[in-house]
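Project outcomes to date are best conveyed with an example. Our students and postdoctoral researchers have been running inverse folding experiments weekly, and each run begins with a structure described purely in tokens. The record below, which covers 382 residues, was selected by the lab manager from last quarter's runs and is presented without edits.
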């Protein structure tokens, strides 16, 4: 058995076919890159001035050659970006690929992505370009540095308040994209991505609609640097660290993005669904074990700062919450327990602060479901 570098599942062959078909429905295999990591970095340096993709990480443009079932490095008309191993920081491709999987599990839109083996056995990260369509049709895209008149050298010289203002000014449906922006900002906080600067936010034009682009360049940078000094790349309320639930939810979501409480709670519940399964993704990932542990510890530390309660249930408690009769109760209990089920994986239960408050109120009422609500108050919070 071998772990698929696209889905992290154990498979008989090289790849999980379902994951391969997400890259392209005609793929039955995907050849290893015929380059070692150093060769890929050298190629990236040589092509840097010719490519439209730039950045600190070494990057290459590629297209999918279906006939050869392989990624082919090209100078023009590439529909994929390749990122080989970084010369200074460990397991960056593994880190970015995992973080993108975690984002998808939390309801964030991400492009097709995965890992490819190279000639030296090291993996390279690939991601499909969302600004390219069939027949090389380009979808207009502008990052927020361009929108705000900043340069690459000043991509940190702004604030989350300015990002919110630009979104309101340029997006076709700013209230819809404000929800997506909040989800992304909270996600970055949870996974320790303190390098999400202006060039990592973009607007994409899809026909007549200008909207926030799919997420990209998501990375847990906190576990890569010694003694990180910041928690966010662009200051929020004038600070880059020591952020609180009040800063992120009451000030940014409520005051700056003007999102109603119900929309914010929906975002938190989507993140809770992700948090329930993230440990499995991290454990199955290609990250070295010491980085897996550091990643998990960071998430478990950050989640309570947003008001999440992580309950370690006993089997009897889990079975009680899984009782079919709970799905049939009336008065809003049915939807409550159905949503809680989405936020649970085995004995790990995620609860938002609002859900916890609801449980505390309803456990005092009469009916046949108090025992289930009592579980949420009796679990062991970490």
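After processing, the design step wrote out the following sequence:
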């Amino acid at each position: 058995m071998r772990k698929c570098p696209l889905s992290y599942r154990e498979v008989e062959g090289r790849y999980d076919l379902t994951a391969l078909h997400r890259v392209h429905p005609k793929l039955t295999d995907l050849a290893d890159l015929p380059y070692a990591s150093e060769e890929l970095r050298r190629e990236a340096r040589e092509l840097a001035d010719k490519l439209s993709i730039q950045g600190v990480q070494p990057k290459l443009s590629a297209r999918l050659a279906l006939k050869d079932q392989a990624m082919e490095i090209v100078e023009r008309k590439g529909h994929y970006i390749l990122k080989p191993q970084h010369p200074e920081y460990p397991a960056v491709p593994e880190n970015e690929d995992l973080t993108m999987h975690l984002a998808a599990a939390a309801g964030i839109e991400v492009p097709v992505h995965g890992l490819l083996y190279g000639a030296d056995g090291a993996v390279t990260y690939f991601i499909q370009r969302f600004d390219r369509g069939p027949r090389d049709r380009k979808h207009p895209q502008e990052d927020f540095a361009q929108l705000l008149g900043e340069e690459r050298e000043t991509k940190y010289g702004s604030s989350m308040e300015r990002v919110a203002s630009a979104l309101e000014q340029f997006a076709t449906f700013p209230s819809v994209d404000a929800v997506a922006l909040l989800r992304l900002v909270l996600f970055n906080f949870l996974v320790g991505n303190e390098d999400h600067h202006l060039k990592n936010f973009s607007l994409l034009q899809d026909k007549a609609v200008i909207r926030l682009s799919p997420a990209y360049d998501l990375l847990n940078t906190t576990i890569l640097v010694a003694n990180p000094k910041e928690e966010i790349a662009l200051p929020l309320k004038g600070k880059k660290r020591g952020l609180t639930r009040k800063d992120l939810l009451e000030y940014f979501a409520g005051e700056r993005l003007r999102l109603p409480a119900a929309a914010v709670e929906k975002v938190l519940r989507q993140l809770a669904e992700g948090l329930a399964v993230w440990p499995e993704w991290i454990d199955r990932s290609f990250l070295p074990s010491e980085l897996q542990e550091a990643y998990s510890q960071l998430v478990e530390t950050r989640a309570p700062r947003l008001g999440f309660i992580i309950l370690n249930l006993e089997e009897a408690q889990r079975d009680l919450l899984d009782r079919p009769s709970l799905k049939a109760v009336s008065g809003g209990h049915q939807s409550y327990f159905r949503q809680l089920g989405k936020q649970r994986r085995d004995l790990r239960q995620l609860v938002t602060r609002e859900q916890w408050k609801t449980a505390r109120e309803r456990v005092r009422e009469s009916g046949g479901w108090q025992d289930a609500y009592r579980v949420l108050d009796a679990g062991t919070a970490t």
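Confidence is low (pLDDT under 50) at residues 50-54. The chain has three domains: 2-131, 135-263, 308-381. The training component of this project remains on track.
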